[in-house]
Amino acid sequence: MRGLYVHVPFCDHICAYCDFTRCGYAKGLADKWLDAIEAELKQRQITDCETVYIGGGTPSCLSLSQLEGLLKLLRPYLKNSTEATIEVNADSFSDDKLAVCKEYGINRISMGAQSFQSDLLKVIERKADYDMISDAIERIYRQGIHDISLDLMYGLPNQTMAQWKEDLNKAAGLAITHLSLYALTIEEHSRFGRANIQPCDPDLEADFYEEAIEFLKQQGFAHYEISNFAKDAHYAKHNLIYWHYEDFYGIGCGASGKINHMRYDNTRNLHTYITKGACPDKHMLTKQEEMFEAVMMGLRLREGINKQTFYNRFHEELHMRYEQAIIKHVRLGNLIEDEKRLYTSYQGMLILHDILVDFL
Ligand code: SF4
Question: Which of 100, 141, 220, 238 is the most buried (most CB within 10 A)?
């Protein structure tokens, strides 16, 4: 199974915590970018994608005609996909953009909310509040797209547990099938980084995370990946391709892909992308790198790593290859191993990064 990721690098405004590949939207620039996307799509031979994911940036900040132009270019892949997602912000996802998404086969919407607290929205510099988001979700649902995911953040500056509980409660009351929860990280090149904002206390961050796991379980959301929760098995199929360490194409400025043991990273410079094309940095992955990356991604999932799948792919037994690390972390209660799988305990999910160091 393969996926296709398309990166839209434009945003209406820049959030205070963000250091993704993105820039302020400008119509002329976005027109040129669209031409470059068309050229890259022609150049890459994309044949077999089961999922399409249009991410960013903020794809919904494109004008209606640019959005339609992009969807037209992607039509051959959208037609054959089982899941086609677009990331949107409620403040730029108008009814006509929603209608065009539906027309071209988008069947899943991922919406950035981050917080429903007006004081925190000001701090992180985001516009869409709870009313805008709930209204957008209702419109999307009425339009017939019922697979809706929401992003929330915790560990925001001065965020309280009461605020976090209220956000989770409000999110669970919306017509969504999926939630992604992210801890704030202070990125050096974000406005927060430059302002020397301090990260959340790790104990409080763990409390936020544990509260979410408990609450969402009661609300019928399965915690199927370290940061992701789904109702009624509405898992993110495209992201499962990453977590199962399968191949995917990445299109656009700042996008990455992995095809047949080769990883490539397109230029992050929009001017270069427009004038010279994707200029990908290519790297042939060694077997060692692939095994480690498969473990790194697989341990994010509740289902963990299927030992037989690992053996079929690498012709090495997972347990033998990482014997010391597995024994150590099973003993510490961070990993659980049974006949078929190796997976992370709840306790282990809080320190997955530290566990992985022992697999290097
Ligand atoms: S967080 Fe998302 S919407 Fe905000 S600036 Fe970054 S890419 Fe744009």
Answer: 238
